[in-house]
Amino acid sequence: MGFTTWDILRGLLLATRWTLALSAGAFVGGVLAGLIVLVLRVQPHRRLAWVARIYIEIFQSTPLLMQLFLAFFTPALFGIDVPAWAAAWVALSLWTGAFLAEIWRGSVEAVPAGQWEAGGSLGMSYLEQLRHIILPQALRIAAAPSLGFMVQVIKGTALTSIIGFVELEKAGTAITNATFHPFTVYGLVALIYFCLCYPVALCRGWLERRLNAAHLAH
Amino acid sequence: MPLISLTDIHKSYGQNEVLKGITLDIEPGEVIALIGKSGSGKSTLLRCINGLETYQQGSIRVAGTSVLESAGQLRLLRQKVGMIFQQFNLFPHLSVGRNVMLAPMVVKKTGKAEAEALAKEMLTRVGLGQKFDAYPGQLSGGQQQRVAIARALAMQPLALLCDEITSALDPELVNEVLAVVRDLAAQGMTLVMVTHEMRFAREVCHRLVFMHQGRIHESGPPEQVFTAPQTPELRQFIGQRDAA
């Protein structure tokens, strides 16, 4: 029984749904984790800032693959059975959060110190300054690089195949094993990843130009 | 009773002592200029008054509130003392009206309609009532600085600190800002300014404080300071100014 190219593509597209779902989930989780770490990182208490810093260093300085393994196998040591999708989501979210927190910290620090001083001189508290003065400006600086990082998240989901989560990459391997057409299958897999990532990169470029233009008018 | 009372303020950056025991009382309604060479500590002293800089020794009280007591006390104090900066420091992402409305709404929990009326009133006071919906980037430097003054006034402070507020302006824009400051002085606002505009200081201030190497070297009414300086340092400082 032969497989048509359409059969292969259909199988891959069905698995793409899971790549998309995991990417979106990891981005949402990463944004939440990143926000928490960001606030810890920039607030004035040194010890809390160190906790955030250690978190960031650990997740940035170890391979995502190791993080996925640990998220998947560590709970098993304690007799807890974690489904592959949950381990993948948690690990990817924490990993994304570490990078986003650093991108955003850079953006917060790019806001001139005079903005903090102006807010403080008007009697605003630290969190009030952050919320009303600093973050709105930092967000504008951070938007394009954050979206750019989304491309890394989408490609990062491919690694979750190794703990058994069936997304695009894993489906590609399974279909290759059935069809013995690795070039066709992985060629299509690459094409699908490209079709997912390239529009995001285009959006990033557009956002960059738009926000920059707005910034110049100010 | 003085509105602002500085007692024996010492401040160092590491080994470098920039304020070496400053004692100064400022009465309500008084207009004071801190003058002196750059590096003499005048901006640092001004920034100590509303807690933007910390100091190691001495005390600062504003209307009975001590500066370094706690974060909450400091916020209360900052509501009584406004500050205008050399670089304006307007919030670029907010319209002019929003710049002025923000602190009353966030800090004093003023309602939106009331804050808007207040902002319009303050902007009119600095001659910019028609710029309510403009963004800071669309204004000239002089206009931006006037917005910054309106923003500080909206908190209804007892005193304003002005840190070289005309130094970043093109020469032709300096006068519109000084005119606003002159009006405030005439209306009885307590003003402490660091300035290089000697003619303006001479006309408007009640007292000039000459700082030199972290100390108050000499102070007095403008006429006395300009016509009968007591120390060679002040004489030299004024001489340089006249020559320039």
Q: How would you sum up this structure in a few lines?
A:
The complex is a heterodimer of chains A (218) and B (244). With 218 residues, chain A is mainly α.
Write up what this structure looks like.
The complex is a heterodimer of chains A (218) and B (244). With 218 residues, chain A is mostly helical. Chain A has one domain (5-217): MetI-like fold (Orthogonal Bundle), CATH 1.10.3720.10. Chain A has helices spanning 5-42, 46-61, 64-77, 84-110, 113-121, 126-156, 168-179, 182-217. In chain A, helix 1 packs across helix 4. By secondary structure, chain B is of the alpha/beta class. Chain B has a single domain (4-243), classed as P-loop containing nucleotide triphosphate hydrolases (Rossmann fold, 3-Layer(aba) Sandwich), CATH 3.40.50.300. Helix content of chain B is 40%, strand content 25%. The longest helix of chain B is centred in the C-terminal third of the chain and has 16 residues, at 171-186. Chain B is globular.
Beta-strand share of residues of chain A: under 5%
Distance from first to last alpha carbon of chain B? 39 Å
CATH superfamily membership of chain B: P-loop containing nucleotide triphosphate hydrolases
The helix-strand sequence of chain A is: HHHHHHHH
DSSP strand count of chain B: 10
Counted by DSSP, the helix tally of chain B is 9
CATH superfamily membership of chain A, which one?
MetI-like
CATH-assigned fold name of chain A: MetI-like fold
Mean of residue pLDDT values of chain B? 92
| Tally of DSSP β-strands of chain A | 0
Number of domains of chain B: 1
